[in-house]
Amino acid sequence: MFGSWFSPRTKALKEEIGYWRGIAGNFKKEAGQTKRELAKLNPDDIQDLIPEKYSFLKPVISQVLENPEMLQGLISKFLPQLKKGNPASISSNTGQVWQ
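User: That's the sequence. What structure does it adopt?
Assistant: C-alpha cells below.
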C-alpha cells in the first residue's frame, strides 16, 4: 500500500500530469489574452492586419468601413442568393456549392 505512493512510476506519472497541467494553463492564458486583444480591436486596426503586398486594398477597405451600405450593395449584387433569403448554400457556374 505504501509502496504505490513512493514508486518511480507514480512519481513519473505525477510529473507528467504536472507538465500537461502547465501546458493547459499556458494555452488558457494565451487564449484569454487573444480574446482581450480581439475585444480591443478597432475597425481602423483591420488595415494594419493586411499584409504589405495587399496594401492597395487599404483605401477600398477604409471606404467600405465608412459606408457599410456599400458592402451590402456589393453583396446583393454579386450574391443574389443572399438577397433572396437563401444563405444556406451558394452554387457557382461550375456546380460547386458553398455553404
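The chain has a mean pLDDT of 76.
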